[in-house]
Amino acid sequence: MTRILITILGLVFLGSALAQTPPLIRFGRGFAAEEQLWLMSVRTDLTPNQGKRYQLKQILFQANPERFQAFLAGELDGGTAPGLAVIFARAQGVDMKIVASICMEAAGGQYFTTQYMVKDDGPIRSVKDLKGGTIAVVGIKTATDLWARAGLLNAGLVPDKDTKVVPMAFPAIGDAVRTGKVSAGTFVEPFFSAEMAKGGLRKLFTATEALGYDHELLDIFFGEKFLKANPDAVRAFLADYVAVTKYYLANTAQAKTDLHKAGFVRTPLPIYLKTSDWKRDPDARVDVESLKKLSAFMLDKLQWLEKPVNVDSMVDQSYLPR
Amino acid sequence: MRFVLVGIALLGWEAAARSGIWSPLLFPSLVNIGYELGQFLVTAERLHEAWVSLTRALGGFALAAAAGILLGMLMGRSALAAALLDPLFSGTYAVPKLALFPIFIFVFGIGSLSKVALVFLECLYPIVIMTYHGARGVNRVLLWSAQNMGASRAQTLRRIVVPATLPYVFAGFRVAVPVAMIVVVITEMVSSADGLGYLVIYSLSSLKTDRMLAVVVVIALLGYLLDKAIVLARDRLIYWEKLDTYYV
To answer: What is the ipTM for the molecules in this complex?
Structure first.
């Protein structure tokens, strides 16, 4: 009799403990430009809600398709993704929403914007000279692919027909351009700084020049079902995220040092500290208009979409701190 | 009867796809895959991509066949060649040559040549090793008989060694052909602006799993047809040794 009572009491306590456990957010992350998110796992002292109102498990993915497949398989609740990747997903009917911004491609000397570079002493002086050549991007239908095609279209060239667009890993692009294996290549930080230090490369155009406006690069998305089931957890997560973003912007060197120490970044620390950064909104607000322009460009100019995507219904910023 | 298992697998797939357990973006219906396959077969651009992959695969395979038969024969009939080359092939057989693809890109460029070169390297091993064992295992009685009858080295090679080795050569071909298709598709997935591997990545990046699986079906069909072509050629050329199996 005593044993039964102890068992029942134990179960009651266990149930009570489980009920108090905050929801776990299984979050798919990438490997570039997501500093403030990584910092949430490295500097938990900056995230007062973590462990109390939500638990965070960050899972690394090398590419967007795998991240979305994991999301579709129910293995992720949310994650990071380029705006255009979420546009693709929404076009296929995936129930996900952008809830916050991570960083933007923005013009202006103080921000980094993705560079397209050519051999310094090579024959290519303008984008038009890329006719008959090859341009290296990091993946097909990625943001780097979109900017490359935009740059070619601006110069009156037809991508794939006049100029081949080929995927190549970031670390290989510098030498591929120098040795003439490709005519031009995409460079993001920290590869951009490392390659510039080596020399022999020259800027042809940038991502913002190709599109002609500042636009969302990376965003945070969540599944709609998760948002509806766990609104408080998402609000708490985003409150911490915004706080960490503000800390990161105010204490960038210290934040980068902490991330490097934790192994999130493998670039040598002196180079990492010197690299310029993408534009990050301190309140994590999403530039919805730029996403609309991107969507229209993908539909009209690139024929990457079969039908228009409703960007307004794709973004929900109501979970961000007011 | 031969296609019962295939039919069961297809029915199982369709049942799973229609169960609603998985997202259709992950597990598309056979109807959708069939539609995309139909679109593939009537779209000139996509057929051209298949042709690009096929020529790369067959180009690398043909080079490997030529070099592999030569090297395998040499190793099989020369103790010195075997002593020199066998450690090289045995020692590097298990190396995943795909890992060398970035180097191949730098040496041969980002176009077809780097892919053909890698297909050549991957196909070379099974052809060399099978040919080597075939040439080494020629029945001694036949060789002695040829020598006793006054056959020259060239005649012995042409009339005894080559016919006795041919079944092994074709066995090597049958291993190498699917390898050629796999390697060409993977290299196109890694770095290419054309070919079936490019179509796979393009479809995946668009979350068009049904279209991607239609391309996979095309790759499988091409592999199947190439294998059948090799079996047909083998049966024609090696008419004295049919592939008969007695089940007990």
So the answer is: 0.79
